[in-house]
Amino acid sequence: MFTRISKVKSLSAKTVTFSSNLQIGDTAYIDGAAKALAVQKKSDSFSELEPDFSDYEVFTRPFYIPRISEPIATTFSNPNPFIRVGNVDIIGISSSSIVSVGNVGHIRMESRIKHIRQIPRKNDEAGTGDNTSDGTETV
What we know:
Layout: E1 5-16, E2 21-24, E3 27-41, E4 82-93, E5 98-101, E6 104-120, E7 130-131, E8 136-138
């Protein structure tokens, strides 16, 4: 790992949610994952057969990390071992994200989100989405 020292005058974060990190200090490895299924309905009622992560391919596909195929040559020169930062003000850190103050060796973050809107059909007109058994269609 690099031998740099981070100095931050102040750090303020209002919200840290959904598998996110606010890391202060050196870290060897960070691994985060978040899955979200967002269903928007017009009605307030819920059926017994609510969707599950396994119902959607986006949550079952393997996580793909592209490999670097060309050689990379790096040279580091750190004449000043300090990284100085004034004030950091963060509104939100969400969905498998990270804010790190310090050295990090390896980071792997993953976020998978499926948005579904279920809107009622108008007078049995054919729609553009998948029909469901409750008289709505998924767009």
